[in-house]
Amino acid sequence: MEPLYIVTERCDPSRGSFWDSYVAWSGLTQLTEVVTLDSLLCPYVLKEVLAEDWAHIVNEDFMLDYFHDLPYLLRRVGHLNGRNLLCVFRNPAGHVDVPRGEHGFSFEGYDLVDVRGGISALTNCGGFPNAFSNAELSSHGLLSSLARAREVAAALPTLYPAHGHEQVNVWAIYRALTPREG
What we know:
Number of helices: 3
Oligomer: single chain
């Protein structure tokens, strides 16, 4: 399975009133940071696709923010200060090993993101209490088990058929261990 890469802005207490409002709204008081592919909570650093990007990105609907060429992505984003460099796998069949290299990616957990991309069913839909409990989420807003992530993904369309964000992909998320600050 090919790894994909993306750089996002961080979502943590350093965002001040946004963070405070988000935690109050979501009820996810266990969070210390949100590590997600949700573009509203953790905006993607690159805002546009350049002509030269096409050879390095995933050429598929709702996937243009994902790169298969890490060195190219790093040149495009510049610095990583205050940002998360993520290595991700969409709908993995099982545990996947991230490529070894200077970034030392560490497993964070599994996110459930709308198939049209951009919205996490775990952290940005107000909760789906019939499918999962907010208490199941880690301090980064993710599920720790692939089996549980698959169960929740399968339950959402049945339990919430008209929600709008019930059709999801399961994403394994790994975060670079390189220093993110200065």
